[in-house]
Amino acid sequence: MSGPSESAACRECGGCGYVVEQVLGQPARARRCACQATCRRCGGSGYVLIPTGASQVAQPCECRYLDERLALFSAVGIPAALAHASFESFKTWSPDHAAAKARAEDFARKFRHDQATKGFLLYGRPGAGKTHLLAAALRYLALEKRVPARYVEFMLLLSDIRTGFDSKRGHMEVLRPLIQVPVLAIDELGKERGTDWERCMLDELISRRFNSGLTTLFATNYFLYESENPVKEDPGRMVNTGSGRFAREAEFMTLEKRVGDRIFSRLNEMCTFLKLDPGHDSRKDRATAGSATGLWKG
Ligand SMILES: [Zn+2]
Ligand SMILES: [Zn+2]
Predict the structure, then answer these.
(1) Which end of the chain is more exposed for a tag (fewer CB within 10 A), N or C?
(2) d(CA 137, CA 69)
């Protein structure tokens, strides 16, 4: 017997066999822990000999899967701030919040590579832990199930598509890996409304994924129904700049208005919608954020 479980005493990795590196501005990367430098099971060859009757047969050692899992995790593109985000480190503060987390975790645990699996869309105000849950799901898929996955932030995605279109590479070169990866998470959906052409690209991306039976996860700050938008209950807070007013008006929008009805109906087909509530008065957050950015007058 060897492998990660035997090294439970390792102080660096806690026994899991890998260490996640958190470098600001870079996507999270995982590397093999020093305690796993030379596999005690295979001596570093990557194969173990299994006796079968009179002879032996070489089988890949578990440690090969460790490297594969770590490479998959490092390829996800999880932001550095969420390098350690997992289901275990996700703090829940209400029954609804815990239920949404349970649904996301259930998705990751039951995910199967060989069949179409409906994804989820997390929505709610900033500070509810949406990106944490996305990162936790992708981490689980890569590290526990060896499923290739990617995390993209919506605005960066749009700018990549624009850059791809402007350059000789073409936008398909940007989109292709995202069209093909088994699980794609798009964060901050709707943050930028985008041009009609950009919406068209987004529609193409998610439609192709849907038609190929691939799973897409989303997170958005926008609400599904006007009745869910807390901004409406606080009409006294005024903005003092044109851009601030614009930002405020934009906050009133539902997701459907932000992304357009075509994409919204596609989201309905592809995803279970999960609302994540912040655990406190989100209006206080906005007031604090406003004093930092100068957008809001209190
Ligand atoms: Zn270790
Ligand atoms: Zn080994």
Answers:
(1) N
(2) 14
What three-state secondary structure class fits 240? Answer: coil
In the chain, what is the straight-line distance between the N-terminal and C-terminal CA atoms, in Å? 63
Residue 56 and residue 52: Cα distance in Å, rounded? 5
Nearest to 141 by CA among 102, 177, 178, 184: 184
pTM: 0.81
Distance between Cα 4 and ligand 1 center (Å): 8
Ligand nearest to the CA of 49: 2
Selection from 210, 102, 202, 217 nearest residue 159 by Cα = 202
Ligand 2 centroid–CA 61 distance in Å is: 5
Q: Which residues contact 112 (CB under 8 A, 6 or more apart)?
A: none
Kindly state the tokens that stand for 5.
């479980």
* 37 CB neighbour count, 10 Å cutoff: 8
Distances in Å between the Cα of 288 and the Cα atoms of 4, 271, 294, 295 are 44, 33, 10, 10
H-type alpha helices, the chain: 62-76, 95-110, 130-145, 154-166, 171-180, 196-211, 242-251, 255-259, 261-270, 282-293
How far, in Å, is the centroid of ligand 1 from the Cα of 80?
Answer: 21
Q: What would the pLDDT profile of 219-265 be if each residue is shown by its tens digit? A: 999 988 777 765 554 455 554 445 565 555 556 678 988 888 889 99
